[in-house]
Amino acid sequence: DSGVTQTPKHLITATGQRVTLRCSPRSGDLSVYWYQQSLDQGLQFLIQYYNGEERAKGNILERFSAQQFPDLHSELNLSSLELGDSALYFCASSVMQGAQETQYFGPGTRLLVL
Amino acid sequence: AQSVTQPDIHITVSEGASLELRCNYSYGATPYLFWYVQSPGQGLQLLLKYFSGDTLVQGIKGFEAEFKRSQSSFNLRKPSVHWSDAAEYFCAVGARQAGTALIFGKGTTLSVSS
């Protein structure tokens, strides 16, 4: 158990819908990363937040957005869903040891868009 | 471009035999290096990491990895594989600065035969 929690574990929805994925980082971790794992693209970085502020963006679609709240949990919002958005979505929180950073991953949310 | 290559998509090893999973990276500078394991239906678990120092690093579950700068490689090894090691293994690299997303390889699926 990494200490990172994600809800829900599974999500089934229809095209055009909007969903929200939730992530709670490990206690004390200020940074949250979101990744998407799909069969064709592998593990791709989406977006990172640090202490409530967006820090970096990766291959995140405009239909997707995220935020990190004062209690440091984060939510990833996916809208106008398409079949191709079906994937496993991971969040990771990180611990710093000086400049050395280690990311610990949650169990993921499996999204199926029908 | 920064990338991670895991040349073997699928490997089958007999229980008790040794294992080596290959990982090569292309990066502007020497990155931080990680191996993660994903069991079926599970999240990503950190096996080991390399930041600096001794190029042979020990991880959990009896795994080790060796960083070879000249070959841009970070191969994962285990002297004796157990059936419970069957999973998908991901090599990842990160920049030597905080707040950088990981770049993952496509993964190697390990099957263990009895």
Order of secondary-structure elements of chain A:
EEEEEEEEEEE
Proportion of residues in helical segments of chain A:
under 10%
Structural class of chain A: mainly beta
Q: What is the CA-based Rg of chain B, rounded?
A: 14 Å
Span of the ends, CA to CA of chain A = 31 Å
Estimate what percentage of residues of chain A fall within beta strands: over 45%
Major sheet of chain A: size, sense and barrel closure? 7 strands, mixed
Mean pLDDT of chain A: 95
Largest interface: A-B, 26 and 25 residues
| Count of discrete alpha- or pi-helical segments spanning 4 or more residues of chain B | 0
The rounded distance between the terminal residues' Cα atoms of chain B is 41 Å
Topology order of chain B in helix (H) and strand (E) letters: EEEEEEEEEEEE
Number of strands of chain B: 12
Sequence stretches where pLDDT stays below 50 over 5 or more residues of chain B: none
Shape of chain B: globular
Strand content of chain B: over 45%
Q: Please summarize the sheet with the most strands of chain B.
A: 6 strands, mixed
Instruction: Please state the CA-atom Rg of chain A, rounded to the nearest Å.
Output: 13 Å
Number of strands of chain A: 11
Characteristic terms for this protein:
heterodimer, A: 114 residues, mainly beta, seven-stranded mixed sheet, four-stranded antiparallel sheet, 0% helix, 59% strand, B: 114 residues, six-stranded mixed sheet
In short:
The complex is a heterodimer of chains A (114) and B (114). Chain A has 114 residues and is mainly β. Chain A has strands spanning 5-7, 10-13, 19-24, 31-38, 42-50, 53-57, 64-68, 74-78, 87-97, 100-105, 109-113.
How does this structure look, described?
The complex is a heterodimer of chains A (114) and B (114). Chain A has no helices and 11 strands. The mean pLDDT of chain A is 95. Chain A is 0% helix and 59% strand. Chain B is an all-beta fold. In chain B, strand 7 (56-58) and strand 8 (64-68) form a beta hairpin. Classes of the chains: A mainly beta (114), B mainly beta (114). The A-B interface holds A 2, 4, 31, 33, 35, 42-43, 45, 48, 50, 55-56, 58, 90, 92, 96, 99-108 and B 32, 34, 36, 42-46, 49, 51, 90, 92, 94, 96-107.
